[in-house]
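User: For a reading group we're discussing how well predicted structures match intuition. Take DNA-binding IclR family transcriptional regulator. Before you show the prediction, I'll give you the sequence so everyone sees exactly what went in.
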Amino acid sequence: MNANGKDEPRVSGPRAVTRVLDLLLLLAGKPEGLTLAELSNALSVPKSTFLSTLRGLCERHFLIHEDGRYRLGSKSYHFASKIVANWSAPDMVRLQVKALARETRESVGFAIADWEIGQAIYTEAVNSTQPVHYAMRAGIRAPLYASAAGRVLLAYAPPERLESYLDRANLKQLTSKTRTDLGSIRAHLEEIRQAGYCASFGEMLSDTAALAVPVLQSDGYILGAMMLAAPLDRMRANYERLLASVVDAGRNASAGLE
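Assistant: Thanks. Here is the predicted 3D structure of DNA-binding IclR family transcriptional regulator, as structure tokens, for the group to look at:
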């Protein structure tokens, strides 16, 4: 029994390591941070026991302590980005990316969000076989606010994560079509949620258009965004056919994760 009169949970593995992992997982869902009392209560750990752990994590920059609240620090995000960089999409997603590229003969990718740097990262990519195409490769990044895949990731993100991103995002005008007004971006995100896809024409690159759809896990949370990109003229000429193919691929990938 701990100092709060609660029975301590049974922990498999080294207790200190397990508590640190539980702590990081808890704070990952709390961008506003938590007080020592809130952490102690949530993890059923006495405050006196927890203090040395918290201090050590702050010293190593895995946590920051400001205004009485603990939040994830730069080292935690760096650690997470290293994991993400080596993460590969599930087989069903990879199969759908390849199938969509083969069917449409356009460039197709699958992106996940790196919230620390505000970028969509493509973990899967297949280039179009046509002479003129949008060049894709795994590892390429795109701004969340300006790219079709990024806009889908924003639209389906938890509200607190979306607001945290919009509060600090540096919204640069990349082309004459780039949306940088928060009101316009918010309105478009709502349109994406209603329609189930994002269509972007010349917003990130002036000569390129893109379509993106969410790939959803069985719990309804977004895993990532599937995106097809093509030269503007070719996208306009084949818009309805390409849109139907992208939507089907996204649904098939989502169904494969259930």
